[in-house]
Amino acid sequence: MNLRSSLACTLLCGSITITSASAGVPAYTQFELQARINLLVNDAGYNLPPGASFNSISAAINDADEVSFPLQVVPDATSYHPGIWSGSHGVGAIVHDGPNESSISSDGALNAAGAIVFTLGDTNGADGLYVYDPDAGTATRLNTAPVIPNYYGSPAINVDGIVGYQAVFSSGRALASTGAGSSVFHVSDSGIDPDSAYTYLYTPSFNDRRHIAAKVATSPDQASQVELRIFASDGSSQRILANQATDAQSPYSKFDNSLALNNADVIAVVATRASDNRRVVLRSDGVSTSVIAAVDPAGTIRDIEFFAPSINDAGLVVFRARDANGEAIYVGDGKTLVRVIGNADVIATDLGGAQVGQDNDSDAIFSGRPTINNHGDIAFIAALYPEGDNQTEWGSGVFVAYAPADDGIFTDGFDG
């Protein structure tokens, strides 16, 4: 076992049976628990204050395998407050506490240096964007003037500490970024700018080039005619894909509302194919488009869930799906598709061997979207129960699935 594998298994790791992988797509056999929540009537959780909880959130991971995620509820003596958790290799803690009874954004977006951006609301005067500095150990409210929206959506922070976000105003929406001494509008919809070609701007994704990608509507109904575009900070843009109502040659009738953008300006998105009305996971740079996965009622992918995929700079795409066994997480490169983990798989936890799943078929197994770093390591959140007993509640765990260090492009300096 090399040093990276040793670090990954220092606390908790386990194995599952997965689809065989090619040289381009890693096989995932090492999983590490970062933290776990549970109802206090069941147990105190792991690596978190007893009673801490989250709901419908996503965990983020950077290339140093640092993980962050928000908590909506951290109990205190008389009330509760939100918090941000940060750590790596199974060691971590809440690094910032929000004001009592305030709200927090659902993603713990972080950059290569471990800086974390998030929003706080219901703060009685201090609502806004915040950036946690791991060196200083403090979070500071970000001044985004002259961009002063009613609400900030989907914030992300890049390698230069620049923050990209959706700016929501009473009259419409804009995509903007703040950092390097400026706050700029990348694009506004027609509610803000009457000359804009776009009637609605959907959930964005931000990269290290200070580019923002988003699904945009051009039709008056804000939905029937849509494109996927990348907007630079100077206002210029590139169309990556369009639906068939916009471009008669397009094979796609619609796109999901959110997407992912990597640092090479390549997009990952879930689309609906016009020819058979089946959902597909796509990767595209505007010139070349690859199908990562497609729904086949009799095949491997029975359904693709309505959560954004994640894409790394090597073009690996991770997404939530359903297969013959139920909910699962898959990763692919357009040639090979690998099952990372899914319903009923066994995984190691602080309480012992657990199975991924719920006590019924109606509750979701995974929370938010899985995220992938440039080594191919994947952060995800899964519901748990003790092996063989789905009537006992073990809460939800935040995990990292590690790609083997000998998979070529996925080496990270831990090799030995």
Q: Helical residue percent? A: under 10%
CATH homology superfamily: TolB, C-terminal domain
Number of helices: 1
Structural class: mainly beta
What is the domain tally? Answer: 1
CATH topology: Neuraminidase
Radius of gyration: 21 Å
CATH class: Mainly Beta
Brief summary:
By secondary structure, the chain is mainly beta. The protein contains one helix and 34 strands.
Question: Could you list some keywords that capture this structure?
Answer:
Neuraminidase; six-stranded antiparallel sheet; five-stranded antiparallel sheet; 1 helix; 34 strands; 1% helix; disordered C terminus
Structure notes:
Residues 1-23 and 406-416 have low confidence and may be disordered. The chain has a single domain, classed as 6 Propeller (Neuraminidase), CATH 2.120.10. The chain is mostly beta strands and 416 residues long. The radius of gyration is 21 Å and the shape is globular. The chain has one helix at 3-8, and strands at residues 30-37, 60-61, 66-75, 80-88, 91-97, 103-104, 109-110, 116-121, 128-133, 138-141, 151-157, 163-168, 173-179, 182-188, 200-201, 205-206, 212-217, 226-231, 237-242, 252-255, 260-261, 267-273, 279-284, 289-294, 303-304, 310-311, 317-323, 326-332, 337-342, 346-349, 352-356, 371-372, 378-386, 396-402.
Write the layout of secondary structure elements.
Blueprint: H1 3-8, E1 30-37, E2 60-61, E3 66-75, E4 80-88, E5 91-97, E6 103-104, E7 109-110, E8 116-121, E9 128-133, E10 138-141, E11 151-157, E12 163-168, E13 173-179, E14 182-188, E15 200-201, E16 205-206, E17 212-217, E18 226-231, E19 237-242, E20 252-255, E21 260-261, E22 267-273, E23 279-284, E24 289-294, E25 303-304, E26 310-311, E27 317-323, E28 326-332, E29 337-342, E30 346-349, E31 352-356, E32 371-372, E33 378-386, E34 396-402
